[in-house]
């Protein structure tokens, strides 16, 4: 079979690239080595983790907040196997939906491991031992990423686990030690903390969510600490050992003194790395950088002109929505259009509660770049909507150019900010000023009023409800 475009990998980047290419008249094939479509995000990442986050959030509210709303229930309990079953059903529905979209868009799906025979021929090695070769004028590599590890840690997938195993445990840990205070560690740590586990986070950097704005990291740690999570920042893990059902983690603290943590499970959440194993990149000479990521130009084109790469296999934030945008970008470029991506405006989100969201530059990045900026901040607890729902933790911070008033970055901690951040992203896409945002009439009472107020604080220093 010959195709205009062959996509290797069916995650958010791959399947969206295939759909957009098909919409633009291309004959498309997708190769997926697993039996279900959707990649890490759908099967063992974004979707299942949000399902467990929502389930555990409901339980946490029932045990901690119902009473203050005048709702009396007997002591709530949960069936963990049902939670996992609900998560599995959501994943099944979502992967089935992707399969439907492949059929709807006349995309041929091949199950097996795709590898390069040459620049236009891809070998598909199937699970039954057979293989076939298909031909594509252009190839898009969208094979995603897998969990990273530290060289001295042996992940046994039973007690020393990655995010994949953390989503399908058969019991709630008594004490979960989380190595890594980034998005994955905090989200999964939140799930099990809400369900009764003791959770201890060990982070090498001096703050959690190290790449986010310092005010955001500080606020999130304060709130999660109030919820019962324990944090050890500035701690470098030196060893992880399993002894029966116990896991012992040793680390050097800020003063260089060795400390020890003992739990029954250890989640290794130290990031992810590009997955290119088995692709046969060396056969066609596709270049990779020192981190194992595929090197691409502004069109996401490799050094081999007909081969492109998107998502987690290339540099940049490892986010499903970034991969989707890149998939659309490549499909449109190959159809002769002139798409663009503003990488500065890809939002970052943490689905703890309260949620965290950000877009644009952090305050430290502006300082490092020597940008003359101003800042406006507004507390969620000053909103009528927040008081009504009881979600008073957090804030919105707007950073704007001191001379032009253009919005340069927006950082949020609070209820539903994962959705709220898109107001800021849209404003920044259109080069809005803080005054522009401050003068837009926002519905009352809403969480979104915090954005208006923070923008006004950045613009003229005079928030109305602060």
Structural commentary:
- It is a single chain.
- This protein is α/β, with parallel strands linked by helices and 466 residues long.
- It has three domains: 215 residues, FAD/NAD(P)-binding domain; 111 residues, FAD/NAD(P)-binding domain; 116 residues, 2-Layer Sandwich (Enolase-like, domain 1), CATH 3.30.390.
- Helix content is 33%, strand content 25%.
- It is built from 14 helices and 22 strands.
- Strands 1, 2, 3, 4, 5, 6 and 17 form a seven-stranded mixed beta sheet that branches. A five-stranded parallel beta sheet has the order 8-15-9-10-11. A five-stranded antiparallel beta sheet has the order 18-19-22-21-20, with helices on both faces.
- Helix 6 links the parallel strand 9 and strand 10.
- Helix 1 packs parallel to helix 9 and helix 3 packs antiparallel against helix 4.
- The longest helix has 25 residues.
- The termini are far apart.
- The model has no long low-confidence stretch (mean pLDDT 98).
**Shape category:** globular
Q: Distance N terminus to C terminus?
A: 65 Å
What is the assigned CATH homologous superfamily of the largest domain?
Answer: FAD/NAD(P)-binding domain
Q: Kindly estimate the percentage of residues that lie in beta strands according to DSSP.
A: 25-35%
The residue-averaged pLDDT reads: 98
**Percent in helix:** 25-40%
Number of strands: 22
């Amino acid at each position: 079979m010959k195709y205009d475009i062959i996509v290797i990998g069916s995650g958010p980047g791959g399947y969206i690239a295939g759909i957009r290419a098909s919409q633009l008249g291309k004959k498309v094939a997708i190769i997926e080595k697993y039996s279900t479509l959707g990649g890490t995000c759908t099967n063992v990442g974004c979707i299942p983790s949000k399902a467990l986050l929502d389930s555990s959030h409901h339980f946490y509210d029932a045990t901690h907040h119902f009473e203050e709303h005048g709702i009396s229930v007997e002591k709530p309990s949960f069936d963990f196997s049902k939670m996992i079953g609900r998560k599995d059903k959501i994943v099944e529905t979502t992967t089935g939906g992707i399969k439907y979209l492949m059929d709807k868009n006349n995309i041929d799906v091949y199950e097996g491991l795709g590898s390069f025979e040459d620049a236009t021929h891809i070998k598909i090695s199937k699970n039954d031992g057979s293989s076939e070769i298909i031909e594509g004028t252009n190839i898009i590599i969208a094979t995603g990423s897998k969990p990273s590890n530290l060289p001295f840690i042996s992940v046994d997938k039973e007690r020393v686990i990655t995010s994949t195993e953390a989503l399908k445990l058969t019991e709630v840990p008594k004490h979960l030690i989380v190595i890594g205070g980034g998005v994955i560690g905090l989200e999964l740590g939140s799930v099990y903390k809400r369900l009764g586990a003791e959770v201890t986070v060990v982070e090498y950097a001096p703050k959690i969510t190290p790449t986010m704005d310092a005010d955001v990291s500080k606020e999130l740690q304060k709130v999660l600490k109030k919820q019962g999570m324990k944090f050890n920042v500035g701690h470098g893990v030196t060893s992880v050992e399993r002894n029966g059902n116990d896991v012992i983690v040793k680390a050097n603290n800020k003063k260089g003194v060795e400390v020890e943590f003992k739990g029954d499970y250890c989640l290794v959440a130290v990031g992810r790395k590009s997955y290119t194993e088995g692709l046969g990149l060396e056969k066609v000479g596709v270049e990779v950088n020192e981190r194992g990521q595929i090197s691409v130009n502004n069109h996401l084109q490799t050094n081999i002109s007909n081969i492109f790469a998107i998502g987690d296999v290339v540099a940049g934030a490892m986010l499903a929505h970034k991969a989707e945008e890149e998939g659309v970008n490549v499909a449109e470029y190959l159809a002769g259009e002139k798409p663009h991506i503003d990488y500065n405006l890809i939002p970052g989100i943490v689905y703890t509660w309260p949620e965290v969201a950000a877009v644009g530059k952090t305050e430290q990045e502006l300082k490092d770049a020597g940008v003359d900026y101003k800042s406006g901040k507004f507390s969620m607890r000053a909103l009528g909507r927040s008081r009504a729902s009881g979600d008073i933790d957090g804030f919105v911070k707007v950073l704007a150019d001191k001379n032009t008033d253009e919005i340069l970055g927006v950082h949020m901690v609070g209820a539903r900010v994962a959705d709220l951040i898109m107001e800021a992203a849209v404003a920044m896409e259109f080069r809005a000023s803080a005054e522009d945002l401050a003068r837009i009439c926002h519905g009352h009472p809403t969480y979104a009023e915090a954005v208006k107020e923070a923008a006004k604080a950045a613009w003229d220093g005079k928030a109305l409800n602060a």
